């Protein structure tokens, strides 16, 4: 059974947050990606991880059950994203959590660490996580699973939007999703307004300063077949971040936590224990 919270994040925007598991366990804060929500982590919070760890997942601003104003200023300020994570850690009294950032969640971790430093966390797990986003790296760090569909996904025309997201979701994985997983993923992607998706991509991001100054252990979890955030992004993190180690997933694309959940959960548990 999940406990739900409504937390005031940056600019007083209300964030929907859920938690499961062992309230006395090591806290793990899951941060989903572009156009997702907390449901992407159901193979984690419905797993034995919940017997041992305190599992917390938010809906990012503009996503899921969090407030979703459509004006771009709510999404283009790095400090707002940083304040969101800080508010959750403080409000829920998370004792040095592991931050798990999937895809766009990696950018949010960079925002948080730049503003608040490392003292309140014990480790970072980048899962197909992004750390750089600008025009010059679109062809080298991002792949066709993202680039082919981003224009349609940011259009308010509903037929265009739906078709783009259908293809976007299908290409998140190397092998076809189950019907149930696809239905879940398409549904929670479609509730994110096109204007919000566009606003998230309107800013330029470079977290190399954060990576260079990293003081906590970092696990880079990367699918070798990822066509959204390319393996080159993981290789970049490993070059720049002195505390980073990698776990490469063969025949897995952008969702190792869904495509190979038992291995993912085992490695996350080991990482969480080792980071304490």
TrEMBL record:
Gene3D superfamilies in UniProt: alpha/beta hydrolase
PANTHER family linked: AB HYDROLASE SUPERFAMILY PROTEIN YCLE (PTHR43798:SF31), MONOACYLGLYCEROL LIPASE (PTHR43798)
Pfam family, one: Abhydrolase_6
Domain AB hydrolase-1 as annotated: residue spans: 28-265
Domain of life, source organism: Bacteria
The name this protein goes by in its record: Alpha/beta fold hydrolase
UniProt xrefs under InterPro entries: AB_hydrolase_1 (IPR000073), AB_hydrolase_fold (IPR029058), AB_hydrolase_sf (IPR050266), Epox_hydrolase-like (IPR000639)
Organism: Litchfieldella rifensis
Entry keyword annotation includes Hydrolase: yes
Keywords for the protein's UniProt record, in alphabetical order: Hydrolase
Transmembrane intervals: none
GO molecular function terms listed in the Swiss-Prot or TrEMBL record: hydrolase activity
